[in-house]
Design a protein that fits this description.
heterodimer, A: mainly alpha, globular, B: mainly alpha, Helix Hairpins, 5 helices
Chain lengths: 254, 121
């Protein structure tokens, strides 16, 4: 009954949406309104104004810098919410992962992870973050790969080994790098008398100013990447720590 | 309804389909994790829709390299917006999953109907 009602409502919504897209302009056209107003300027002057060869990086860090700063705040708040709900992991308490069941992951898995881990890490930091302004990539993408590499390591070697290599006291300062990098680079411009997030150094002009701006954008990219990656790692560690409740419920069940 | 136009905008039609699949999962499945998966499918459909808007026939990535004119590039704004959207989606999913962990710890189940039935008035 309920399912039939839901399917009926979905058919109505679907018909309305399909009717709407039937009225939209053709997908691949160059003359749709979204590509004729501000986009030509972004594409032509993006490198001079945005400061990056990758125009998306320029848009994210320069044209829409405030937006991205808010976004960095969102992932930081997500970490705060997760930690408030679940607590930090503590070494010795956790029974999750391969160590909990007493079965270690196979030699093949551990060897492959041991070989692949540094390569993934290098790809994330050197290609995605540091070279993100001139090629596909950027801070958030590098951070996602960085986080994924440590999560793969955790799945193969267990949470105790992972928290031993990345202890809490290393992660806590790194989690805020994204916001710290953004704010500090933005405030430098304020001291010079221009707007927040303008990426200028006092007394630097001409070609040197371009280099300085590139450098500052790279600092922000690396900050976002490391900060985002470590935030994802901390969220996963906090969730894996909770697994002990499944083995040993210490909360009375209702 | 103009069906040939709709077929030309195939990405839009697929995103509508994905959206309905996600909405069906959220509305019908009682399991909270499945509801979350449905929510993520809906988010993905919106990402597909917005990125498709910026597409150009034979377009190049919006990165300035030798031999690619700016008129050949796709629209960079949807891609930048969706990068923001993906990060926010990941953050909300992380918070929702930790809430699910807490709910499972308290009730021993993730079935929404059972949880509602067990709640004291």
């Amino acid at each position: 009954m309920r399912r039939a009602a839901v399917i009926g409502a979905l058919l109505v919504i679907g018909a309305m949406l399909l009717f709407a897209i039937g009225k939209m302009p053709a997908m691949n056209s160059r003359n749709t309104p979204d590509k004729t107003h501000v986009i030509p300027r972004y594409l032509e002057k993006g490198e001079a104004e945005g400061g990056a060869k990758n125009i998306i990086t320029g848009v994210i860090l320069n044209y829409r810098g405030y937006d991205t700063m808010g976004e960095v705040t969102v992932i930081f708040s997500a970490l705060c919410a997760v930690v408030a709900l679940l607590d930090r992991e503590k070494r010795g308490l956790s029974r999750s992962g391969p160590d909990a069941s007493g079965v270690r992951s196979s030699v093949i898995v551990r060897t492959v992870v041991r070989f692949a881990f540094p390569v993934i890490l290098f790809f994330a930091v050197a290609y995605m973050m540091l070279h993100g302004e001139g090629s596909p990539g950027g801070g958030f993408q590098g951070g996602a790969i960085l986080g994924a590499s440590v999560i793969v390591f955790t799945l193969a070697f267990g949470l105790p080994e992972s928290t031993r290599r990345m202890p809490l006291k290393v992660r806590i300062p790194l989690e805020s790098t994204a916001m710290v990098a953004f704010l500090s680079m933005g405030i430098i411009g304020l001291a010079y008398g221009v707007n927040f997030l303008t990426y200028l150094l006092p007394g630097v002009h001409g070609a040197m100013a371009q280099t300085v701006r590139n450098l500052m954008l790279t600092v922000i990219e690396v900050g976002i990447g490391v900060g985002g990656g470590v935030i994802f790692i901390s969220i996963v560690f906090a969730m894996m720590r909770e697994d002990k409740y499944e083995l040993q419920p210490d909360v009375p069940q209702p | 309804m103009n069906f040939s136009r709709m077929f030309h905008n195939l990405n839009y039609a697929v995103s509508v389909l994905l959206f309905l699949m996600g909405l069906y999962t959220v509305a019908v499945k009682p399991n909270l994790i499945k509801k979350l998966i449905g929510l993520n499918i809906m988010e993905t459909s919106v990402f597909l829709f917005i990125v498709s808007i910026g597409m150009v026939e034979g377009g190049q990535a919006p990165i300035i390299v030798e031999g690619v004119k700016s008129s050949q590039m796709v629209n960079p704004i949807p891609q930048a917006l969706i990068l923001t959207g993906i990060v926010v989606a990941v953050s909300t999913t992380a918070v929702a999953l930790s809430l699910c962990l807490k709910i499972h710890e308290r009730y021993g189940t993730l079935n929404a109907a059972e949880i509602l039935g067990r709640e004291e008035p």
